[in-house]
Amino acid sequence: MALFKLLVNGRNYQADVDPDTPLLWVLRDHFGLVGTKYGCGIAQCGACTVHLNGEAIRSCVLPVSAVGKSKVTTIEGLSSDGTHPVQLAWDKVDVPQCGYCQAGQIMTAAALLKRNPKPTQSEIDETMTGNLCRCGTYHRIREAVKLAAEHPVSGSSKTPKTK
Ligand code: FES
Ligand code: FES
């Protein structure tokens, strides 16, 4: 065991864990940040995607000892009030079905738009292809990423769901 100090969503956290513990489990079990999900555990599904210094990474295979002073952002920290352009586009298009994969999808899309604000359709497809969705929401995911890139929804147009 060793003490690891992590900067997550702009806050300092610490955990006394085995250095090989995947970041995912430190986030979920030690810090209570359960928005990041466990899917496959072998970097194949994208459910566990978070940002490390703004880059999308698979937290299920990243040992906590490799995080160091990098800034970790989880779905809880993407925006303080759910008004990141990708979150607003997701809401507008009504993307989720069961929702399980969605935090990972949103984190992957947000990282893409940060490094490439106007991605082509094939760049969107290429980036999002690593995030699996058992419910098959791929069409709406694509639509929402395009909306966030081309016509970002403004915060004021977010309306409460009535269903
Ligand atoms: S749980 Fe990390 S990629 Fe599937
Ligand atoms: S919305 Fe159900 S797994 Fe993607």
Feature tags:
163 residues; five-stranded mixed β-sheet; globular; disordered C terminus; binds FE2/S2 (inorganic) cluster
Descriptive report:
By secondary structure, this protein is α+β, with helices and mostly antiparallel strands. The protein is built from 5 helices and 5 strands. The protein has a 5-stranded mixed sheet with strand order 2-1-5-3-4, with helices on both faces. Mean pLDDT is 94; it is low at 157-163. One FE2/S2 (inorganic) cluster binds at residues 96-102, 133-135, 137. One FE2/S2 (inorganic) cluster (FES) binds at residues 96-102, 133-135, 137.
> What's the overall average pLDDT, rounded?
94
Strand order of the largest sheet: 2-1-5-3-4
Class by SSE composition: alpha+beta
Query: How helix-rich are the residues, as a percent range?
Result: 25-40%
Supply Rg: 16 Å
Ions, cofactors and other bound molecules: FE2/S2 (inorganic) cluster
Distance between the terminal alpha carbons, to the nearest Å?
Answer: 47 Å
Please trace the helix and strand order, writing H or E for each element.
Answer: EEHEEEHHHH
Number of separate strands: 5
Please state the overall shape, judged from the principal axes of the Cα atoms. globular
Total helical elements: 5
Largest sheet: 5 strands, mixed
**Contiguous runs where pLDDT drops below 50 for at least 5 residues:** 157-163
Strand content: 15-25%
